[in-house]
Amino acid sequence: MTLKLGLIGHPISHSLSPWIHAKFIDLAGLNGGEYKLYEGNPNQLPDVLTQLKQNKIDGFNVTIPYKQVVLDYLDELDSDAEILGAVNTVVNQHGKWKGGYSTDGGEGYVRSIIESFPSLLNKDTSVLILGAGGGAARGIYRALVQKRLKRVDIANRTLDKAKELLPLGKDFTPSEVLTFHTAEKNLSQYDLIVQTTSVGMKPKVQEQIIQLDNIRKDTVVSDIVYQPIMTKILQDAKVHGARIHHGHAMLLYQGQLAFEKWTGKKLDVSHLVDELEDKLRGE
Predict the structure, then answer these.
(1) How far apart are CA 278 and CA 16, in angstroms?
(2) Where in the chain is the domain with CATH 3.40.50.720?
(3) CATH 3.40.50.10860 boundaries in the chain
(4) CA–CA distance, 210 with 121 (Å, rounded to integer)
(5) May I ask the CATH architecture of the domain 3-101?
(6) Nearest to 131 by CA among 53, 193, 73
(7) Would you write out the chain's pLDDT as a tens digit for each of its 283 residues?
(8) What are phi and psi of 38, to 5 degrees?
(9) Catalytic residue among 23, 67, 98, 232, which?
(10) What DSSP string runs through 178-240?
(11) Would you call 279 a catalytic residue per the annotation?
(12) What topology is assigned to 106-246 in CATH?
């Protein structure tokens, strides 16, 4: 039986998910499998979901603008989906759709960090998250605080927006909300800095959310933007002697986690990081 997977959202024609999951299907040794794009405008979600049911799809990913509104159409939610108020992976379990799973940002991001820096996340680790407005920031914050680190602080232009994230971590890891100016002054306190906004994304590749003059040389700077692969903040981090973590690694590992939810197969995908980078560079 052919494994039927897909992605819903708009626009999604640029998505790399079909390429990624075709690689996973091959790695898993599945004889048949497909990962298709099901695109619809914000008002067409019911029609898109009807199409998925007719196709008897085994699972699908969800991206903008459907991550929140799709909750009303699912049979069951996991705890993280209820807390975060968004879904990005749905599994067909015996004809019922179960959704949630913080693979988008969240747990997928943490997997990508651990693969690159196995000893980075521990009880002595201090993290600074840059940005608080997007779903990726919420998911990444939630996943990191659950690791019970020393602290996970949030810097954002609008402090009230950042404060909305704090309830997600109050039972796990101490957190403080900072201005970007204060964060810049205190950079030496952090072992990991995570850039979660669209600043520096093509075409505005010269933009940088904060300056890194006060960073320590052993700090890891991570940017979830993957076009360009080497963003301005990652370039600056390298100049200052910091270690860097690329956004396309998160893209790969959040896909790995979704595939695991659909098939029960946990794949070693580390060798695909370089292949994905080559694809992004057009090589």
Answers:
(1) 12
(2) 106-246
(3) 3-101
(4) 23
(5) 3-Layer(aba) Sandwich (3.40)
(6) 193
(7) 589 999 999 999 999 999 999 999 999 999 889 999 999 888 899 999 999 999 999 999 998 899 889 999 999 998 878 888 888 899 999 999 998 766 667 888 999 999 999 999 999 999 999 999 877 898 899 999 999 999 999 999 999 999 999 998 888 999 999 999 999 999 999 999 999 999 999 999 999 999 999 999 999 999 999 999 999 999 999 999 999 999 999 999 999 999 999 999 999 999 999 999 999 988 6
(8) -120, 95
(9) 67
(10) E-HHHHHHTGGG-SEEEE-SSTT-TT-TT--SS--TT--TT-EEEE---SSSS-HHHHHHHHT
(11) no
(12) Rossmann fold (3.40.50)
The encoded tokens of residue 90 equal 């749905």
Write out the two tokens for 66.
Answer: 């459907």
Name the token pair of 55: 């196709």
For tokens 């075709």, what's the residue?
22
